Amino acid sequence: MKSQEIRAKFLEFFKEKSHKIVPSAPMVIKDDPTLMFTNAGMNQFKEFFLGNSVPKYNRVADTQKCLRVSGKHNDLEEVGKDTYHHTMFEMLGNWSFGDPARPAVGYFKAEAIAWAWEFLTEVCKIDKDSLYVTVFEGSKDADQLGQDKEALELWSKIVAKDRILFGNKKDNFWEMGDQGPCGPCSEIHVDIRSAEEKAKVSGAALVNQDHPQVVEIWNLVFMQYNRKANGQLEALPSRHVDTGMGFERLCMVMQGVQSNYDTDVFTPIIREIETITNTKYGKDEDINIAIRVIADHIRAVSFSIADGQLPSNTGAGYVIRRILRRAIRYGFTFLNTKEPFMFQLVKVLSETMGKSFPELKDQRQLIENVVKEEEHSFLKTLDQGLLLLDNIVAENKDKKIDGRKAFELYDTFGFPIDLTALILSERGYELDEKGFETAMKEQKDRSRSASEVSKEDWIVLAEDPQQEFVGYDNLETSVKIVKYRKV
Ligand code: ATP
Ligand code: MG
Ligand code: MG
Ligand code: MG
């Protein structure tokens, strides 16, 4: 089954169960100071769970564009190295927003569990013997929560006993934050190893162990408590269901492949990378990682730009710039790409995903231009920066690199700190991040005091013949402030 069809099947399934199919919220969040990017399907429904607004529909399903590169969910380090964590991914989800005044409109554990199982085993026809489910085991801490007996009973009716596992608070109890709605969850994991491998070790022992072929696909959260400011839990007046399933992981399972990157979500992009860079995926692990990183990162960057977030030097824009530069460096070092090339991947991405996400098609030209320009400007200094880094490493006696040197790479060559750390870690070196922060702060202080004394020398003014053009304020920023010196 093609990925398009899998996505459609999910939405159809829940539509038939009286769910309203809603569009994905933007991946870039503009109006929430607590979150830069959508990192889960529930984000756009947060206000309903908090009781601050009333939903128009009580049953909703969608596919949500998510980005997990900062804050509580940061998978960036894993991406490319493993085969199932992405920066940008789609989270399929179904929700029930309970309403105490109209209890009949919502649903809770019984339906959520039965439908998830029905969808996976009957619609997707995934072998029951490759699935494991988890149930919250309870906690002995201040909350003194008991085992999620309700979920256990419901699962016991449909799943063999040895396939039901118990999980701790970290994996099986979801909280929105220090306060607010929370509750136990049940996850579904799938074991896609060969029969031979399965005979050696039980899949049950590999659940939640970062095994690339025993992966979590769906998380069913049952919101039934509210955590008060004093940390105590109270029962919520209306209970909600919040589920999230990794779309690319589901495609991996359904397409019978061992990696998300071997699904048709990624293969057209990977073929294009192979063609452009004259390399082959699947032969050499360094090259494989580089190709996976680039295939992943072009999606994150393109979707962000389509949402209106351009790369820049601050906030969300800098997150995007960092992701792009990370990919450019992987290409440069492992695929030998010395010219901009990632922008050419936008075409195939918009062809494969544009039907479900028309913003990619509509904004294709802009995305290509921005990516190309970013590649161009970073490639100009990347070479020299890497040379400097080589020298720093060569001169270094211990395995820790001075943060001030990393600051020079940042300041002069545009190397984001995490990129420098990544390159160093590839060589077995560590970075002194504190030193970097100190150097950064010192520079900020210097430029603040410098701007105080030099106010008279530097002004922002356009095209005054009395003034001599001396350059842009900062080549790094997307907003270029033109500076003129008084003559
Ligand atoms: P994992 O344990 O694999 O990191 P998670 O427990 O952090 O996943 P949830 O927050 O429960 O993930 O999100 C719901 C679902 O979204 C997961 O079951 C998984 O299928 C998918 N998912 C989570 N993170 C990623 C990611 N970085 N890339 C692709 N899919 C993901
Ligand atoms: Mg995770
Ligand atoms: Mg997990
Ligand atoms: Mg989970």
From TrEMBL:
Record's catalysed reaction(s): tRNA(Ala) + L-alanine + ATP = L-alanyl-tRNA(Ala) + AMP + diphosphate
Location of the protein in the cell: Cytoplasm
One GO BP annotation of this record: alanyl-tRNA aminoacylation
Keyword set includes Signal: no
Cofactor dependence: Zn(2+)
Note on how the cofactor is bound: Binds 1 zinc ion per subunit.
Source superkingdom: Bacteria
Chief subcellular location: cytoplasm
EC numbers on record: 6.1.1.7
Keywords per UniProt: Aminoacyl-tRNA synthetase, ATP-binding, Cytoplasm, Ligase, Metal-binding, Nucleotide-binding, Protein biosynthesis, RNA-binding, tRNA-binding, Zinc
Domain Alanyl-transfer RNA synthetases family profile: 1-487
GO cellular component: cytoplasm
One of the record's GO molecular function terms: aminoacyl-tRNA deacylase activity
Coiled coil region boundaries: none
Family, as annotated: Belongs to the class-II aminoacyl-tRNA synthetase family.
Free-text comment on this protein's domains from its UniProt entry: Consists of three domains; the N-terminal catalytic domain, the editing domain and the C-terminal C-Ala domain. The editing domain removes incorrectly charged amino acids, while the C-Ala domain, along with tRNA(Ala), serves as a bridge to cooperatively bring together the editing and aminoacylation centers thus stimulating deacylation of misacylated tRNAs.
Job of this protein: Catalyzes the attachment of alanine to tRNA(Ala) in a two-step reaction: alanine is first activated by ATP to form Ala-AMP and then transferred to the acceptor end of tRNA(Ala). Also edits incorrectly charged Ser-tRNA(Ala) and Gly-tRNA(Ala) via its editing domain.
Protein name: Alanine--tRNA ligase
Origin species: Arenibacter palladensis
Gene that encodes it: alaS
From-to range in the entire protein, with total length: 1 to 487 of 878
